């Protein structure tokens, strides 16, 4: 694994993280504080998602928290002023929920993101905005590994809305000159992910099931392939995108570079936890149709432009994640 990039000190930067109390947002907050940045978290703490006070317990006196929704334009407009960088992560993150509640998904993922951009255009058009897109924007891979030239054919409402939001970001760069970038994040796991349910972030949810000695249901034959990226690596990619001017106007795909069969990931979780079991089960109605069969990505573009490469192997990442939940599971379920 590479160690080629180095994150710069950010003591002169004021950073706003939307969705900052969640899994990736709070990991960013920890890292940015270690780079001496001035950090504000903007999060609606919607009950179904990963916002959790435990995520920032050790740093709560060092960050500012605004309880706010990206759909609240007035509050957002106030909050984007006096900010140098916006790491724009607030989202409806679940693929199945986007199908059962399509208007909620549009509301948060389209209207919410347009609000962030409009607030910047009107009140702070110098702010650098880094958007966290998703592998779900690509849909079923026509070739592997997927790269930035791959066509986008999302299989669900979430992928469509996240793609629209990415395009809003690029448009606001092209037309209004706001420095925006999109980093399309793949399946991410690690400490601080919610463990309440398995509607998204299933690897983390499987850790919970294994730790409680339960049976993990694997839908289909388990042979679909995935690329699981450790959260620290994802946070580094987002920070690098904010630090480097060469990222502006670009879209990057990121992943671990390690392809693994779904069933093998489950077996690895059970092996490292030392408990739990699995069984194959049919997809629930409507789930197969939105399940991408195979995905993994090359990191060639982000490596050549930003110098980023994943540093954490699945084995090491799982061990760190499981060690975290051995201490803190109760705060996440
Ligand atoms: N975790 C992954 O595997 C993954 C994969 C691809 C993309 N992403 C993207 O990364 C970003 C962060 O996801 P995460 O995994 O940290 O999820 P998370 O659920 O842990 O965090 C999302 C946070 O956003 C907040 N939020 C939701 N709607 C909001 C709104 N309207 N206004 C303000 N806050 C709101 C939630 O309260 C939560 O704290 C999202 O944009 C997601 O689409 C994540």
From TrEMBL:
Keywords: Isomerase
PANTHER family per record: DTDP-D-GLUCOSE 4,6-DEHYDRATASE-RELATED
Protein name: UDP-glucose 4-epimerase
GO molecular function: UDP-glucose 4-epimerase activity
Assigned protein family: Belongs to the NAD(P)-dependent epimerase/dehydratase family.
InterPro entries in alphabetical order: Epimerase_deHydtase, NAD(P)-bd_dom_sf
Catalytic activity, EC: 5.1.3.2
Superkingdom: Archaea
Domain NAD-dependent epimerase/dehydratase: 15-255
